[in-house]
Design brief:
The complex is a heterotrimer of chains A (503), B (138) and C (288). Chain A is mainly α and 503 residues long. Chain A is built from 23 helices and 2 strands. Helix content of chain C is 40%, strand content 20%. In chain C, the strands form 2 sheets. A 6-stranded mixed β-sheet of chain C has the order 2-1-3-10-4-11, with helices on both faces. Chain C has a 5-stranded mixed β-sheet with strand order 7-6-8-5-9, with helices on both faces. In chain C, helix 1 packs across helix 9. Classes of the chains: A mainly alpha (503), B mainly alpha (138), C alpha/beta (288). Chain B: This is Tripartite tricarboxylate transporter TctB family protein.
């Protein structure tokens, strides 16, 4: 482990780390252009590097992008990844109230603490945690996705029934593509382009970013009226007091859920948000610019980004698209990630892990001056900012598959986002349900095949049974008791009930 | 009212389109089961919304033309860049948004659209190497 | 120059593409950037190259399964016709290895086939991993259910966690777990034993006529001038001798497939006919 620090502190490796996090932050800020595409594009540069610096550089891009992504989520309402969607809810609201600085500041601090705590845990318990992740089979993912979808429906601030409708529409869009079990095309209309379904980033960019821009086109006059006053650039004492426990809880939630391949990072931010809403003295502040609603999820998604290295480095199993590209990079370096990595290439293993301490510190130091700079973006006139944002979004979306069809899709989904906003539907539940719907359906159908069509399988496996019991108590029983006591059920109580399963 | 009808109609449409997919059963689900469940939820929520008529929708104004034009410009942009490269369509797209949709002056329009296109070229093509179709240096 | 790899970055086809792109730069005398254009098992990127200018600057890496297996699972009227494409270089062949968890009670292929019920993971619908196992279990009369996952990594994860009983996957996806003692190889699906697993029998040796593999080759659009095609072909021939490329193949347990264009076409045509006949014979349904 200490040899890892020797690797990190070689001047050239510090430089690669710095370059990586800088690039990561840059692509994180550019909506649509994600870390997976960037790492793929930069792979050839690493051919001539030694394995340790190559992976230090590429890993830096990954977690650097997590920091950068927050900036566009808060300022422009453009979440680049599923795990930053919930940040938009309160983060963008804070920006509209002229509190973009504190929102970004607390996100940077939370990300630093969450990321660092996660590295410490990773160094200490990685092998144990990796084995735990393997115990999660289709049954456990089914229950996890079910919990997630119930949390999603209760997230918004509009009418509950509209939240459910938006989530259902998201679930429906997720079925576009080939059926996960038998390959039958669904709602594909004979198009190859849709055969593999629609990329999440296109849905998020369309519904949030482009939809918002189209909506503002119609409201140009009124939009210019509420340009937010440029407030303080850093969190106040009160902000910090409100956020510190959120950061602590977010670190734990993020680390644990991030280890799970397939939806772990998304679930972590969602659960962190629900937890904060539950612990808040006044849950009605959420969705209206509550700083804990930024601190919790942002801490959690960075902790999750770090712990998602565990399956890759310990088991050789990439947990998401970006990890798959990093896996490829290690293969091309002749350093196959997996159980043997820590013994055969300790310099790579510990070098990468320890470089994350340094990288996170770089990112925190960058964030301070950059936040001030980026917040000024909000001073640019909407009529100039909008076309530039749209252009960057279009190019970013193109880079996902290098495909112009995706640009058309984002325009169509932008119209959908505009229409939804006009009719009083929120994009948050739609987009998150889109991610979780895919997971729920395929995990449930895999479970049915494994259990020979018996639903009993869910209650005979210890982990899924435990999760299911917590879910039933929290989502069904507790709110029902409340209804009997108060004679009604409002959405905050559904939201509150939902988070118990995770605590 | 409209919101509810739209949601219910979407659910119905999905039910009709997904009818032939094969439902199977809950314990042996076919490709059509999950879309059908979701469609039914859509229809039910749509009806509830239509009945309750929550007061949170906005009327569509004449400005909707600008919105449609904007969305169409993006689709058009996507359609042409494969054939003529990204440089000229980008300048045109930005100019359209700045001048027509944004009501900026000609000078701002010209400067911003040309400079932004050059910056985008430098960043995405020269630095990041995104394989966008382009004319210059192709 | 643009080398289209119609698969997502980081996957096995992408890695082969990147390794050969790197090796072919010197003989071609120019840089060869890889562009990933994933979708529909390579059909999206493949069609794009098919429609591109036949000037030698647009080439793509395609796979055998797109022509030999995908048509069995989905009926696509607009599927690419291999006869229209020019093959400018054949590259690799990869076996499928049947593995079980090391804690599995099944010590041999015979044990597994005699099990009362087998749940096997596949890397997706219409893949060689699905076809190979479906044919094997069907021909042996085993009561087996396929459980498709979204690619190799999730399927391997499920087997490592003993969520499923068996899995067929490429050696590059499972060998490190075999070496670490977590997974046990039972058989391979090629004509001959894998040079990386000389002690593991083929299913054919064991009396089951199932041969499935994955091969990769480079194509150019139709109408490419002969001189240009020859330069490309010569460059790929030279690239295959590159030392780094050789090391990449060995590190990733990939074998060489270096034949003429005509042989390659015939091989894929034969494989397709054979798979179609076997699927018919056993009444298999890969797709719906």
């Amino acid at each position: 482990m200490w040899s890892g620090f020797a690797v990190v502190f070689e001047p050239q490796n510090l430089l690669w780390c710095l370059l990586g996090v800088t690039l990561g932050m840059l692509v994180g800020v550019l909506p649509g252009l994600g870390p997976a595409a960037t790492i793929a594009i930069l792979l050839p540069i690493t051919y001539d590097l030694e394995p340790a610096p190559a992976i230090i550089l590429l890993a830096g891009i990954f977690y650097g992008a997590q920091y950068g992504g927050t900036i566009t989520s808060v300022l422009l309402r453009l979440p680049g990844e599923a795990s930053t969607v919930v940040t938009v809810l309160d983060g963008h609201e804070m920006a509209r109230q002229g509190r973009a600085g504190p929102a970004l500041g607390i996100a940077a601090i939370g990300s630093f603490i969450g990321g660092t705590a996660s590295i410490v845990l990773l160094s200490a318990v990685a092998p144990f945690v990796a084995d735990f992740a393997l115990k999660f089979g289709p049954a456990e993912y089914t229950v996890l996705a079910l919990i997630g979808i119930f949390l999603v429906a209760s997230l918004g601030n509009g009418t509950l029934v509209k939240g459910v409708a938006a989530a259902a529409a998201g679930l429906l869009l997720a079925t576009v593509g080939s059926d996960p079990m038998v390959g039958e095309p669904r709602f594909v209309f004979g198009s190859d382009q849709l055969a593999d379904g629609i990329d999440f980033v296109i849905v998020a960019m369309g519904l949030f970013g482009v939809g918002e821009i189209l909506y503002n086109l119609e409201h140009r006059q009124s939009a210019s009226a509420d340009v937010p006053a440029f407030g303080r650039a850093w969190p106040s004492r009160l902000d910090w007091l409100r956020s510190r426990l959120a950061i602590l809880r977010g670190s734990v939630v993020g680390f644990l859920l991030g280890v799970l391949p397939g939806g772990g990072a998304t679930m972590s931010s969602l659960v962190a948000y629900a937890v904060e809403k539950r612990f808040a003295a006044d849950p009605s502040r959420f969705g209206r610019g509550a700083i804990e609603g930024v601190a919790g999820p942002e801490t959690a998604n960075n902790a999750a980004a770090t712990s998602s290295f565990i399956p890759l480095l310990v088991l050789g199993l990439p947990a998401n698209a970006t990890m798959a590209v990093l896996y490829g990079a290690l293969m091309l370096q002749g350093v196959p990630p997996g159980p043997a990595l820590i013994d055969q290439h300790p310099d790579v293993f510990w070098g990468v892990i320890n470089s994350m301490y340094v990288g996170n510190l770089f990112l925190l130091l960058f964030s301070v001056p950059l936040i001030g700079l980026f917040v000024r973006l909000l001073k640019v006139r909407q009529s100039i900012l909008a076309p530039l944002t749209v252009l960057i979004t279009m190019i970013g979306v193109y880079s996902l598959r290098n495909n112009v069809f995706d640009m058309v899709l984002v325009a169509v989904l932008g119209l959908l986002g505009y229409g939804m906003k006009k009719l009083g539907f929120e994009p948050g539940p739609f987009v998150l349900a889109f991610v979780l719907g895919e997971l729920l359906e395929s995990a449930f159908r895999r479970s049915m095949r494994l259990f020979d069509g018996s639903l009993l399988g869910f209650v005979t496996r210890p982990i899924s049974a435990t999760l299911l019991a917590l879910f039933v108590i929290a989502v069904v029983a507790v709110p029902l008791l409340r209804v009997r006591r108060h004679g009604h059920l409002d959405r905050h109580e559904v939201g509150r009930g939902g988070r118990d399963d995770a605590s | 009212m409209i919101a509810g009808i739209v949601v219910a109609a979407l659910g119905l449409a999905a039910l009709v389109l997904g009818w032939g997919l094969g439902f199977g059963s809950l314990t042996d689900p076919g490709p059509g089961l999950w879309p059908a469940i979701v469609s039914v939820v859509l229809v039910v929520t749509g009806v509830v919304i239509a009945i309750r008529r929550p007061d949170d929708t906005e009327p569509f104004t004449r400005q909707v033309v600008a919105v449609l034009l904007a969305a169409a410009s993006l689709a058009g942009y996507a359609a042409v860049i494969e054939h003529v490269g990204f440089e000229i369509p980008t300048v045109v797209l930005l100019a359209l948004w700045l001048r027509l949709l944004g009501a900026e002056g000609w000078r701002v329009t010209a400067v911003v659209s040309v400079v932004a296109t050059a910056c985008a070229y430098g960043l995405f093509i020269s630095v990041l190497g995104v394989p966008l179709p382009h004319l210059i240096g192709a | 120059m643009q080398f289209t790899v119609p698969f997502p970055p980081g996957g096995s086809t992408d890695l082969v593409g990147r390794a050969v792109a790197r090796a072919v730069e010197k003989p071609l005398g120019q840089s060869v950037p890889v562009a990933n254009k994933p979708g529909a098992n390579g059909a999206v990127g493949g069609k794009e190259v098919l429609a591109s200018a036949p000037d030698g600057y647009n080439i793509a890496l395609l796979v055998k399964s797109l022509f030999a297996i995908t048509p069995l699972a989905t009926k696509d009227q607009t599927a690419i016709d291999l006869d229209k494409l020019k093959i400018v270089g054949t590259l690799t062949t990869e076996d499928y290895v049947l593995v079980v968890n090391a804690s599995s009670p099944h010590a041999s292929l015979e044990d597994l086939l005699k099990a009362p019920s087998v749940k096997y993971a596949t890397t997706g619908v219409g893949t060689g991993a699905q076809l190979s196992q479906a044919l094997l279990f069907k021909s042996a009369g085993t009561n087996a259910t396929d459980v498709p996952f979204d690619g190799g990594a999730p399927a391997v994860t499920a087997l490592l966690g003993a969520q499923v009983d068996a899995l067929a996957a490429a050696p590059s996806e499972v060998m490190q777990h075999v070496k670490a003692g977590k997974l046990r190889p039972l058989a391979t699906f090629n004509e001959k034993r894998s040079s990386y697993l000389p002690d593991v029998p083929t299913v054919k040796e064991k009396g089951h006529d199932v041969v499935v593999d994955q091969r990769r080759f480079v194509v150019a659009p139709p109408g490419i001038p002969d001189a240009v095609a020859k330069k490309l072909a010569d460059s790929f021939t030279a690239a295959r001798k590159d030392a780094d490329y050789d090391k990449f193949l060995k590190d990733n347990f990939v074998e060489r497939w270096e034949v003429s264009e005509d042989e390659a076409r015939q091989h894929i045509k034969d494989a397709r006919a054979q798979y179609a006949a076997q699927v018919e014979k056993f009444g298999l349904r890969l797709g719906k």
